[in-house]
Amino acid sequence: MASKPFTPEETRRIVQFLKNPAVFLNMTTDWPALHWTVEHLSACLTERLRFRIGKRTEDVAPLFETECFYIEATIKEFLSWTANEDESLVGPFSDYHCKEFWAYADYKYIAQLFQDKPAMFQDVVWSDFGFSGRDGRDSTLWIGTQGANTPCHLDSYGCNLVFQIQGRKRWHLFPPDDTHCLYPTRIPYEESSVFSQVSVIQPDLKKFPAFRRARVHTVTLQPGQVLFVPRHWWHYVESVDPVTVSVNSWIEMDMDDEARVGEALTKTIVCALKSAPSLDNNDRWLNPTEDGVSSHDENMQYLNLAVKACMDKRRDDAEGTASLAELGKRDSSGLFKTPTSLSFMVPYGPHLIPVNLAHKPTYTCPKETSCYWYNELSQCQSTSQDEDKPRGDNKLHQRSGLHAHQEAGSPGTSGRGAGLHISTNDMLQFLVHPDVITLVTRLIMCRQRELHS
User: Fold this and answer.
1) Is the per-residue pLDDT at 154 higher than 90?
2) Using CA atoms, how far apart are residues 142 and 108, in angstroms rounded to an integer?
3) pLDDT for 26-43, tens place per residue?
4) CB neighbours (10 Å) of residue 19?
């Protein structure tokens, strides 16, 4: 077996200290999954998969999964569709010409796909990255055509390792501190995914001016390479070759307990407001990846269970039962822990390449994560001061974050002309903004500690 540039222990230590995305090279040369091309998979997987279909456009709005078409097809049918672009179409793809549409079989859990071929789980060797016992069972498969993409979003839980097998994918990544520049939204709602309202390839800078300050890091992932995506980094991913295949694994982290409380809180609020009978709740607000809308009682039960699990975890940590004996060692729960005080020089070089900043933003905000709320409050104060002026001088500032519109006679208007209509989705953008959810989650946990002290 060919030697690897890093041992599993060294690789896990590197991942623990990486703060920015990075690409590992020459770590998968002996992985059997390197042969998981779409041709190979078409022979292994004969059952139908769900493909997401999107139209090839250069729209200034993101194409969310709620706006796509969906079909059921085998990989063999998918392969035939991609190869016969100039012939008449038959089968499940017959309504979608591959020159006009892209297709994506995404989020396919390998544990389910190969449940009758468990030996294939061993083809994905995440143990080489120091995660003992982790393989294909803990991974998802992604198969797409050129242009297939995942809308820009951040994952609420853990960090991410992505193994590129066939074709290339272009990654656009943004640091967590740029959240205010990405205009986060929870509509469409999907647990553990915070979407951006910005089309990062064709941004509407009039509607989303703060995106000018976003610090995009870009990389084109090649076959055999593994990308590490740190916790809460925003990412937009697009296939750039005719056919692409990749496998990823989300690595749980010790901070996920508190994040689950935040996600349970978010779900409770979103479902409560969007399930209520309302004229502006007729949109497709639930992502197709979700099973359905839970009742309020179910959501509250989940919230309480998440709070209890977080409290139990913190109590165990305080008692020392889940502390690490040494850096890089799993705790009793098997979670991935990030170091806090030890210093370490990340060995960048020919086998580990940082994902660099694509270009410097036109303006860097000194407030970082608090910039969003600083700007919101500053502009609100400015508006309040304007209200003290005579009516003729008072102008409503149309906020890009709200997408509010002024229409004579719209709901909430007075008889004096233009008014400001706020929809349920507008309100949710602030109520379940990641910064607000983080604050409320901490208040909940603080109160719980007071009650149990």
Assistant:
1) yes
2) 7
3) 999 999 999 999 999 999
4) 11
